[in-house]
Amino acid sequence: MFGELVEGMKWLINWLYGGTVALGVPSYALAIIFLTVLVKVVLYPLTHMQMKSMLAMQKLQPEIKKIQQKYAKKDPQKMQRAIMELYREHKVNPMAGCLLLLVQLPILIALYRALYTYPYADVAHAGFFWIPTLSERDPYFILPILAGVTTYIQSKMTTPGGSVQEPTMRFMTVFMPVFIAWIASTIAAGLSLYWVVFNLLSIAQQYIVNRQILPAKEGVPQGEGGRKER
């Protein structure tokens, strides 16, 4: 079944490449950029949900800090229960930041396999500026660096303020970009190009979502679990 997914990815790249030929700018790199935009459109509802959830977590940070200060030393288990209750009351998913990556994994793996065995119709169109062919690694590590930087920027935009002490958030904002950059330096440049373009589109989307939601500054109910204290 996965072999069919890889073949389907090859067909899609070839079809999009045909579109670039029709436009008079034959380029497999442009075909991959079109592929990225297509995937982004398909995943838009999930991405939007993820971004709204992360912003909701940002607004809950003052309450989470209060709960941590109250129970961290006395009763860590009660602290975790109170935080999870707060998330439930406000319909926030703390794992939303990882969900999009998990959904993308089959696409990334299929693209990875497709590029390494891709039968280019015209090798002259298989390059990307300084890269001879998208099936090879970036010789100057420009795309891997951009992959790491854009991953970091996106993580900072979606990481709730004041949560840097959380292990998961620390991983997402510091180690994940470094890991992505390292992985991108070892794989086909076409996959790195996909990741960079996807991140840039996500950063633009996150900026718009932030502008729409954050200015409202809706107050978070005070007290443990989001209930008002009198």
Describe the overall structure:
The chain is an all-alpha fold. Residues 160-165 and 217-230 have low confidence and may be disordered. It starts with a helix and ends in a 17-residue tail after the last helix. The protein is built from 8 helices and no strands. The protein has one domain.
Distance between the termini: 59 Å
Low-confidence stretches: 160-165, 217-230
Q: What structural class should be given to the helix and strand makeup?
A: mainly alpha
Number of strands: 0
SSE string, helix = H, strand = E? HHHHHHHH
Helix content: 55-70%
- Provide the residue-averaged pLDDT: 83
* Major beta-sheet overview: none
Classify the beta-strand content into a percent band.
Answer: under 5%
Described by the principal axes of the CA atoms, the overall outline is elongated
Number of domains: 1
Estimated radius of gyration: 21 Å
How many individual helices?
Answer: 8
